[in-house]
Model the fold of this input.
Amino acid sequence: MSKELIRLRNLCMAFDDDPVLNNINLYINDKEFLTLLGPSGCGKTTTLRIIGGFTTPTSGDVLFDGVRINDVPPYRRKINTVFQKYALFPHLNVFENIAFGLRMQRRSDSADPAGKKQVRIPESEIQERVMEMLEIISLKGFEHRKPDALSGGQQQRVAIARALVNRPKVLLLDEPLGALDLKLRKDMQIELKRIQQQVGITFIYVTHDQEEALTMSDTIVVMDKGSIQQIGTPEDIYNEPKNAFVADFIGESNIIDGLMVRDNLVQMYGKQFPCLDGGFADNEPVDVVIRPEDIDIVSVEQGQLAGTVTNVTFKGMQYDIIVDFRGFKWLIQTTDHCPVGARIGIKIDPDGIHVMKKSSYSGMFGDYSSFSEEYDELDDASIGSDEEERGDET
Done:
């Protein structure tokens, strides 16, 4: 069983009477890779700064190993931080950049019974610990290079090694991949997870990038407007979102108004669909989430619903197809090409339908007519006759 390392209890934060965090309650386990995920301004970086000791909460407690640390300064916490700007010393080589914190560090002489005499870490130990870090970050042989002779990804790894060489129990990472290009960012996601598993400490990672969160995390904390919306594994967050915000922010989602007829049966567009969800009241209004990859395109006659293709975008591995169902536009991701203007049917298996309680986010997401400028807002001009109107209900 995992050991709890950090607990945030009833945490609130306000700047100039403007609430930034609203009653955050969260625990973080030892050796866990936890990601705070959300849009800009949601409070994730403020939460990270409070954990690191750079910001003092307006109210609430930060506990580390069961001890309240609200008033403990950053340098006395067993926590180090890597920021988006790596702040490597340009005049120092890789070895000295990593060793910098150790050279500044003093510790009590064990021979001193009063524990008051402070001695520097021996050079032999500095050498050993820096070389160990270079091995971990796969930069052995780079110790004499200056930062400007390194790639962005290598600079980032040096910054991580500089933080880890002090042997913290927690490493905080505030969007450290933001300055890297797409391919390098993907490579570094795998590298960061490998480093975390190898050193065996807790990583707390802040990002607005859903792919980073899904790729690296043991646990994802989705935040919005200063509040936690959902906590769970990447699989739970993606497959079982708690509300329309989470469903929209994590991956692509079609979010439709529905009616829960009874357990395992939901109604959309006047038609009933088998599903796997239960625990709702009979005929309760709900939000229905259908992921674009869970929709099968079939003929109009075979479809549970029928609509008109209004936009097609080639994405390499797949086509993103926008389909108009009586004015509400769905996104379908498929390897099958359908031309603009085609009438198609769709089928959805019961396990491809996820039903959620209505929330303050209901009605705000899921219609791809306004999701992105990439998709033109096109009317379904083919729905004009009574016959075609009835076709959408079959």
